[in-house]
Amino acid sequence: CSVHFVQQQNSVCSSHPFHPCQTADWICCLSCVFLQDVVVVSGFTVGKSPTAKSDKRHPFNLLLTSDQACIYVNIVTSVTCPPKHTYVKLSDLKAEELVNVYGVVVFFKQPFKSYGTDYCSSLKITDESNQKIVCTIFCREMDDHPKIFQNGDIIRLHRVKAKWFNGSMTLSSNVGFSVVTFDGAVGGAVEPRSSRKFFSFDEHDRRRVEELRSWAVSQDVCSTVSAAVPLSGVQPKVYFDLTCQLLAKAPIDTTCMLLRVWDGTKCPYTQSDVTIDPDTIEGPASFSGTKKSFIANILVFDNHVVCAKQLKIGAFLRIYNLRAVCESVKEPGLLRMDTDHLVFQLNGGTSFGKGIRVLPESSPDVQKLKRFGKDEPSDSEMLEIWSTPPEFLSKKTLFLSVSFCCSRSCSHQIQPMTLSQLKQSQPEGEYHVRAQLRSYQPHRLHQSLKLFCSNCSSMQEIPNEEVLSGIFSAAFQDSTPCRHPPWILSGHKSMDLTNVMNPSTFITHSHTHTHISSLPATFAGFSLEETCMLAAHYENIVPLTSSGGDLDLLDLSAPFLFRGKKRYYGSESETFNINNFIMNLGIQLLQYVLLMRLKLQDSTDTLDVFLWKDAEKFFGVSAEDVSATEEAQERVQKVMDLLCPPEDSQDQRPWLDLCLMAYAVEDEPGQSQTCYQIINTTIITPSTTQSGPD
DNA sequence: GTTTAGGGTTGG
């Protein structure tokens, strides 16, 4: 921790102090570290990486284990160091020069397959010099192409070559080409979009992006090039860009595909009926009433069919250069007549940027789309529809979602509400919500297993194996023989006590055997390990110790009973003594319980809920089994993996129909807080699903 | 360290 200055060779930053960061704020500190910043890590422990084999990363880790650990970040590097790259104004391009440029996108095409080896992106950019430059980019991988979502996005191109073509200056990708794209909204986060893990990005970049954003707004660049129109704003024969969610799709023929989408607004024109074979449709086959009036039929042709085939139901899309056309009919003997029924077409080819792009969930436009219902609370019907995930919109898909997700066993029929409505409503009572699981704690599922005393309503952790070993070895330090209490010799019938080990260690108790003194009369005691081995051969084992010549139970933080692999814990009862123990075990049996905290999300909000009272019902296992059997543990893991698929898997989070109980908890007198628990809900995993749609 | 394409709409 003595490092406050770092001597860097060949750097103008060498004399700048580093900013020390204590462990408490290390996360905060790391969030302000940029690539190229110099970081000093001190007081960390070098440890073997347990995942080195699987992730093929460095065999060692730096572990943050003590309060002394520090990360020093040279936060001044990025502002005082000269820029790593120089950028050329678009008016200063010279033919055959290799340059880096920044620009605002004013036209772009989705990458299309060239006749060579690569995909080709075609775009046009501009900057403060007001030059508009066409750029042609070749990359073999789709992912390496610019991630442009709309005109007005800011783009940074490295290693492009200026060339004269047809009387104007153009830019083409060159060897070592790379691109980073940013959203163009003034005031929005400056988040680089790139396929690469490592790319330079510092304060100079941030400033340049913000400069270009402000300039573009001042010049009204975006309003002249944006063609975004919501469904409520479409006019016949107009070309426009649509941001929407995909609800269903169906092939029409080899060159055409139907996409059914919505964006939360209602198109003022009647939709023409597109008839399709219900067996070929993916997603709901039909929509009823109000829902139907929000849905647009889009016919996608030729080259776009390949892309459309890959789209997943529920995905958020932007469709570029879509055209609204009036359906025309030809009556026999009459001229072809246009009707007032609209259908949308994405015609073949890539001219005018025609294409489809899947927008990432994090995109501001997707967030805006999802908020639609929230911003228009007056239309409650719309709110209900918009916050309904598409999976729930028809019987066919309802079956899918129910059979793969969960079922409620409560008797009441309440309409589901959004998380935001629930948060605003009166506490206490039972509610239904439809939500996805965003995250959960504890992530190590075995930590969710606790011990609960129903007598005093207290919850405690299960001691770990090391602590238990300690209790056992301490209990058997005293190996002096002790008196047989009368109950041992009398073989108390009411307890069916049948097998007693002498002098000081165990009562074993079997319903079927009677072995008195089947073990050596004197022995020093059993360790935890030995007890476990014994437990495999006897039905019940109660570990005892000698205490001043009398038999006594072990410290109650250890299990008082072993039954096979199951261990039973207890808490001391008021009237406890060893005789009462024999009469009624004198122990309040602690229940195994599962306790988790889940973060739910829907399109309106997030909500922290507990899973405890009905956790066993939720998982379909008993907590006691979870404590002892791998099958039960795997079951819990499987359910959590289903609800919250691991990051690297492509699985989508399923929507859950949940019954919640809201209740007030008093932290301090007069200070109450509303808590929520999942109740009456059972998760059904695919393998446990046998039933049909009913 | 080569090639590809080099914005600008048929219409179904």
Automatic annotation (TrEMBL):
Domain Telomeric single stranded DNA binding POT1/Cdc13 as annotated: residue spans: 87-217
Keyword Ribosomal protein on entry: no
InterPro entries: NA-bd_OB-fold, POT1, POT1_C_insert, POT1PC, Telomer_end-bd_POT1/Cdc13
GO molecular function, one term: G-rich strand telomeric DNA binding
Key words, A-Z: Chromosome, DNA-binding, Nucleus, Telomere
GO cellular component, one term: nuclear telomere cap complex
GO BP term, example: telomere capping
Primary location group: nucleus
Localisation: Chromosome, Telomere; Nucleus
Keyword DNA-binding attached: yes
CDD domains in alphabetical order: hPOT1_OB1_like (cd04497)
UniProt record similarity statement: Belongs to the telombin family.
Protein name: Protection of telomeres protein 1
Species this protein is from: Nothobranchius furzeri
